Amino acid sequence: MRKIICVMTMLGLCGSFMFAATIDEANKAYNDGDYTKALESYKKLCDEKEAKACSSLGYMYRNAKGVSENATLSQEYYKKACDLGDKEACTNANW
């Protein structure tokens, strides 16, 4: 029984890593024009404190890429990216 639990745990951990988005995957989706997938990936990564993902969300909301333009959300995401250490986002947060 203990062996089954260990195997199930390992499979669960492997599965979560296999489906975890990376910034490169999110950028590829964005560059391919798959804004829905990019948005979903960036949001997940931003929630995980990935500064560049937060900055990308700010850009998407600022420039209406796959979303309606929303200056408030754009600035919130740029500010979060800035707080996480993205210096370029600090400048963009004040547009």
TrEMBL record:
<keyword id="KW-0046">Antibiotic resistance</keyword>
<keyword id="KW-1015">Disulfide bond</keyword>
<dbReference type="InterPro" id="IPR006597">
    <property type="entry name" value="Sel1-like"/>
</dbReference>
<comment type="similarity">
    <text>Belongs to the hcp beta-lactamase family.</text>
</comment>
<dbReference type="GO" id="GO:0005576">
    <property type="term" value="C:extracellular region"/>
</dbReference>
<dbReference type="Pfam" id="PF08238">
    <property type="entry name" value="Sel1"/>
</dbReference>
<keyword id="KW-0677">Repeat</keyword>
<dbReference type="InterPro" id="IPR011990">
    <property type="entry name" value="TPR-like_helical_dom_sf"/>
</dbReference>
<dbReference type="GO" id="GO:0046677">
    <property type="term" value="P:response to antibiotic"/>
</dbReference>
<keyword id="KW-0964">Secreted</keyword>
<keyword id="KW-0732">Signal</keyword>
<comment type="function">
    <text>Hydrolyzes 6-aminopenicillinic acid and 7-aminocephalosporanic acid (ACA) derivatives.</text>
</comment>
<keyword id="KW-0378">Hydrolase</keyword>
<protein>
    <recommendedName>
        <fullName>Beta-lactamase</fullName>
        <ecNumber>3.5.2.6</ecNumber>
    </recommendedName>
</protein>
<dbReference type="GO" id="GO:0008800">
    <property type="term" value="F:beta-lactamase activity"/>
</dbReference>
<feature type="signal peptide">
    <location>
        <begin position="1"/>
        <end position="20"/>
    </location>
</feature>
<keyword id="KW-0802">TPR repeat</keyword>
<dbReference type="InterPro" id="IPR040239">
    <property type="entry name" value="HcpB-like"/>
</dbReference>
